[in-house]
Amino acid sequence: MEKSLSKSFYGWWISIAAFFTFGLAVGIPYYGMPFYYDYYEKAFGWARPDITLGFPLAATLTLWVGPVFMHRFSPRKLMIVGTGLTALSFIGFGTMGGNIYVYWAYWLLYMVGYLFSGPIPHQVIISQWFKKSRGKAMAATYLGVGIFGAISAKFIAKPLVTAFGFQNALIITGLILLLVWPIAGFIMRDKPSEMGQTPDGEPIAINEKPEPPRGFAELLKSRSFWLLMVGSLCSIGSIGSINQHMKFVFKEQGFTNQATLDALFADALFCIMISSTAGRIVMGILADKFSKKWVMVATYLLVASTIPLLLLATPENPTYVYVFAILFGFGMGADYMLIPLMAAEQFGVNTLARAMAIILPADTIGQTWFPYLVAQIRQGQGSANTSYGPALNIVFLLAFVGAVAILLLPKHAFTNAAPVHVQKS
Questions:
Q1: Which domains does the chain have, with CATH numbers?
Q2: Which residues, in sequence order, are CB contacts of 58 under 8 Å at separation 6+?
Q3: Mean pLDDT in the chain?
Q4: Where does residue 411 rank: exposed (0-12), middle (13-18), buried (19+ CB within 10 A)?
Q5: In this predicted model, which residue has the larger pLDDT, 71 or 277?
């Protein structure tokens, strides 16, 4: 009985579909957008703080979207709506003029699309379909972000800009994102019960009381909730600062030729994203075998320790670009994936949507405002080659604070219900 259930288990098809939907909806637009920042700077004369301000403004103005919508609607349907909004935002970026307010408005559209089609719906679906193999399944899903993020600059943005110009490249990218629709519409399913199955394809358990979802008030009273939110916010904010400013850092360290700069950024991002896939696989397996808390602490410390390496890259020593990219990517890949795993372990799978509806927007605040802070600090330091140094030192400290917050987490935030007896087949 158990063997036949395992053979016909549909969850791994869900994971494969999520690989593509998550990669298209998040990997391409999020990791590909910084490729265009210096083009905005040249074409429209915008300052770097203004270029990086659109994302944090949008994240702040959409804080209410997650708690209001994410636990009320089908994750699969939210993916379809969200990808459509993200596609429209990229078409808008490609057709806008030099009005900075229009640029910021399109970031608002992008942010709603990201919330609807990004991490939360994918995390909820995978957590519903898997329990014992949740780490491996989440790793497989997040591989999509790594693979599609890897090709976003090197094989999508760069060749499209070369062939059609940067604005047409943005429009074409928006249309590519719509490939999510048929996958989400015809393959994805929200829960195993829709297919007459159970998580992991296990035999049906008797006397198992479903864990009741926790309310927002109960979550907000939990010390674990705040530790996970602060820890993830600091680490994700540090990663976002590096991703958003990496091309500018290379430029100020002497890589000034546009073709060389484009190629270097594309190669570095490719290495980061490919390495991130290895990080997701390794840490996903470890998270199923060992304490998720210690796996998460090790990952956060790795992210923090690699940040100083970025400032060592120069035209005379370009090897540091790839050393940084490989190590940073490995930690980054596991970082994002471990947050929902830890949330599910701390608060229960039926509370995951509510918990992540607060944690993800908070993380996005860090992910978007930290880069803006870096831009402001850098602008105050002038244009010397070392002007990014003070800002990246602060980013390093924030990443370290994130690791300490996770270290303080207890084993479980809430006590789970009575033991389960499994029906023998």
A1: 2-422 (1.20.1250.20)
A2: 104, 107, 108, 110, 111, 368
A3: 85
A4: exposed
A5: 277
